[in-house]
């Protein structure tokens, strides 16, 4: 696979990001919602770009020292190629540089690949939002202490393995 770039989302990415959202989620944001998000000073959105094409995106809201992850999606044709993990790593690195010491998200209980990815990076279950996803429960996951040396070691080891796999492709 050619080099993937993780970069900040810009307005010209919205159309492609909205298409990826439609492929990925049963309910998704409108174009105007994306425009509003990009102007929100507490919202940070990234895209994965491959050969000039946006193939995934992710984002979070920074609330004090907490990164509240709002979305992570990869275009159907590019799934199962570590792009979601690349986006998650980029997002967690960005969150930390912005002062986040913890991160949280909701994930469909039935989304086993996402559950596995988040657990790999130290997210743990802390609750349930009943019916959050069109009637399906959403699990609330947290990493409470990203400054903890054990979490940093886990993150660094996972990131190093990821980058070794990506660079060997």
From TrEMBL:
It is an enzyme of class 2 (transferase). Residues 4-147 form the N-acetyltransferase domain. One of its GO terms (molecular function) is protein-N-terminal-alanine acetyltransferase activity. PROSITE patterns: GNAT. This is Ribosomal-protein-alanine N-acetyltransferase. Its EC number is 2.3.1.267. Signal peptide: none annotated. Gene3D superfamilies: 3.40.630.30. Pfam families: Acetyltransf_1. Keywords: Acyltransferase, Transferase.
């Amino acid at each position: 696979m050619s080099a993937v770039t993780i970069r900040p989302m810009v307005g010209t990415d919205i159309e492609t990001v909205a298409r990826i959202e439609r492929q990925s989620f049963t309910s998704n944001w409108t174009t105007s919602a994306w425009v509003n998000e990009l102007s929100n000073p507490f919202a940070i959105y990234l895209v994965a770009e491959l050969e000039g094409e946006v193939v995934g995106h992710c984002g979070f809201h920074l609330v004090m020292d907490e990164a509240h992850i709002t979305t992570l999606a990869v275009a159907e044709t590019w799934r199962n190629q570590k792009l979601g993990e690349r986006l998650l790593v980029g997002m967690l690195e960005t969150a930390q540089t912005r002062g986040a010491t913890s991160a949280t998200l909701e994930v469909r209980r039935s989304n086993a690949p996402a559950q596995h990815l988040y657990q790999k990076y130290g997210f743990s279950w802390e609750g349930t939002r009943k019916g959050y996803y069109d009637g399906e429960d959403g699990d609330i996951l947290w990493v409470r202490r990203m400054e903890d040396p054990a979490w940093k070691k886990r993150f660094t080891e996972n990131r190093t393995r990821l980058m070794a796999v990506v660079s060997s492709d």
